[in-house]
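Hi all, a correction to my earlier message: I attached the wrong file for Zn-dependent protease. Here's the right sequence:
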Amino acid sequence: MVYLIYFAMIVLIPLWAQMKVKNTFARYSRVASSASLRGSEVARKMLNANGLSHVSVEEGRGFLSDHYDPRTKTVKLSPENFHGHSIAAAAVAAHECGHAIQDSEGYAFLRFRHALVPVANIGSNVSWVFIMIGIFAHLSGMLLLGIIFMAAAVLFQIITLPVELNASNRAMDQIVSLGLVGNREDREARKVLNAAALTYVAATAVAVLELLRFVLMFTGMNRNDD
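and the right structure:
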């Protein structure tokens, strides 16, 4: 019964977060911003106001594929946010610009996250191999190695949380002060950003739960061997 509840949690939590962000985005993508600025215009104005005229704003592909690429110094907005005049488009565009500002300022958590990328990629790709070998072959050493690799990937997700929350806070501070949305629209913009943050919180919670499960499995395996 405990395992059924556990597996229900790790499946339902991410699904709930994804539904929340999609429903919130769909709702506020139908609400036009009083500033009547496209998402691409919001991004351009915010970047210019922070001395980042060298950062380009481009249209990307895919639904909610918005991101900032620090390698090319590019804010990429999904088509609906690049062309949209909605509160949702403005909020998402400003959030991605928040990452560009973090990059220009050398924001510590962002730099740490970038440094962790190679380790996290390796950890997420190979951890399950060692974990499965350790479990089925009853080799605690292999299980521990898998846990270490997984911990690196989990650490990356944990560090992602303050990076995303800080970018949203920067976005909210500036879209109002720069007049990129109306004064009474900040609450709606905040709802969009909070819903997006839930996906990161949910992913991190599930990752921590999974890591904890294997740590407990490792300690139990060692206890049985003794």
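Sorry for the mix-up. The helical segments are 2-28, 39-49, 79-83, 87-105, 108-136, 140-177, 186-225.
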